[in-house]
Amino acid sequence: MPDKRMTEDEVIADLESGMTIGIGGWGSRRKPMSLVRAILRSDLTDLHIVSYGGPDVGILTASGKATRVTYGFVSLDSIPLEPHFRAARQAGTLEDFMELDEGAFYLGLMAAAHRVPFYPTRAGLGTAMLSENPGLKTVTSPYADGEELVAIPAFEMDAVLLHMNRADAKGNGQFLGPDLYFDDLFAMAGKKTYMSAEKIISTAQFLDEGPVHTLRIPRVHVDGVIEAPMGAHFTECPPDYGRDEAFQKEYAATAKDPEAWAQFRADWLELESHEAYRARLNERGLEQRGQS
Amino acid sequence: MSEQSEGDITLDEICVVAIAEAFRGDGEVLCNPMGPVPVISGRLARATFEPDLMLTDTIAYAIEGNLPFGGDSSDAVIESYMPFRSIFDQVWSGKRHVVMGASQIDRHGNQNFAAIGPYRKPKAQLLGMRGAPGNLINHATTYWVPNQARAFSETVDVVSGPGYDRIAELPEASRSHFEIRRVVTDLGAYDFESEDRTMRVRSLHPGVTLDQAQEASPFELTVTGDVPESRRPTDEELALIRDVFDPKGVRKSEFR
Question: CB neighbours (10 Å) of residue B53?
Fold first, then answer.
């Protein structure tokens, strides 16, 4: 049986500058944040990020790690506009992006997962999605209807990063929250897929955790498994934990002030390991309880 | 209606009913309103004249029953599972009616909530395209505009939701599912049931004159015949809005 367990730093060692990296989750929900922080503290540059974006896209664009982004939206959910991403867009430091209708983005993932060049849709006709993205083409139906449709190109991704509630060492993944989002398609679409999980358990334990329908990431699509408790923090990862709204607010506020952003990065985002991050979170929790 | 209770009715309640009216006749579709006033409208329509609507808890479940806006839905009866992937499938199936906002909207119904200024380097990055391109071309859409004077525009900077002029340029097959059902603002309700498919005054909220509505629009509003007053909530509707769907008055926060 394969044993795919590895560390965040070992994942980074597999990645190269200039790569296209897909990131699972949705907005500020179940994002592989321990892996995003590992990218931030690495030497990687010039990355192309593909994501239903949240703080992953905010952090990687604000830091200059990402020079290109393909996205369905970028939001912190409880804070509708991701302020770091917004600042980058308005400053013009991120002019290389492809923004797609949220549903059309799903088709780009599915096309890559199914190894076809595109999936067709009506979404985008008559809008800036088409007129502002010269790289986006239309196709004409070969059937009698002859309809013209937008061809959403397959998202070729060198690597994909995901976070699951549970995984086994072989690379099977389990989500226990209300929504898988599109992580199964991300897993299939990546040339290499790295999956962090709150907890690595034995395969036989999966059905003690949730019903069989929650076993949606099969190991044939997974190359590395990283045990990362609190690995999605500060994004939500139900039922293990909700979003840390106070932390997210602090993160969001730093978009207005370069010094505060540098301090926040040093204090939280560029710590040497996920263990160090968790230790600091524990200290913060103790401090907060002490204050209340 | 007595003068006393007429005086009691507030603008937010008129708007809730005006949006609820946009769902009239929808039957069995997924009603997907965004934001306090539209969500309350959807729940009100289902509780009264449009009982077959499906509504979500705005997370991942379609739910039964009359829940307050923003209230705890953990005890609600779940009738179907609607994760985001199913929502997109639902969009493409066409059995959906969405309510979205608009930072800018023009007389043809072109809508922008993506960005102000040049698209590649905007003055203000707003929500982005989100699901607007797919929604508009697949099923009925209603816009909720709490500040008409601010949002009505001669032209829009970025087209996130296409209007009737842009749709008219597309082949028949691409056009056939497009419908902007209604635009509801703080002054009135508008539709596109005019010959040239430009924004037509459907009704004006109590106390609003046509001149006032026109003043709050940089483009000429289309008028066909007499413009009625927007329907006032019934006593039953008022009780539902105030006591059941929004006892905390969250809806009032949209008027700023």
Answer: 18
The beta strand positions in A177-289, using DSSP E, are: 190-200, 224-227
* Beta carbon pairs, A and B, within 8 Å: 126
Give the pLDDT mean for A127-134.
95
DSSP string for residues in B44-72: HHHHTT-TT-EEE-SSSEEE-S-PPTT--
The closest of A161, A147, A119, A198 to A24, measured between CA atoms, is A161
- pLDDT tens sequence across B125-155: 999 999 999 999 999 999 999 999 999 999 9
Provide the residue type at A217 as one letter. Answer: I
pTM above 0.80, yes or no: yes
ipTM: 0.94
Look over chain A and give the mean of its residue pLDDT values, rounded to a whole number.
96
Query: pLDDT per residue over A59-71, tens digit each?
Result: 999 999 999 999 9
CATH class of B3-254: alpha beta
Question: How far, in Å, are A171, B30, B149, B212, B241 from residue B231 at the CA level?
Answer: 59, 24, 22, 18, 15
For A170, how many CA atoms within 13 A lie in the half-sphere containing its CB? 12
Distance from CA of B29 to the nearest CA of A (A): 19
Residues of B with CB under 8 A from a CB of A: 59-61, 83-85, 88, 91-92, 114-115, 119-134, 136-138, 158-162, 166-167, 169-171, 173-174, 177
Say which residue the tokens 């099923």 belong to: B139
CATH 3.40.1080.10 fits A8-116+154-244, yes or no: yes
Rounded Cα distance between B113 and A1, Å, is: 51
Chain B residues within an 8 Å CB radius of A123 = 133-134, 137-138
Whether the pLDDT of residue B2 is over 80: the answer is no
Q: Where are the domains of chain B?
A: 3-254
Domain boundary assignment for chain A: 8-116+154-244
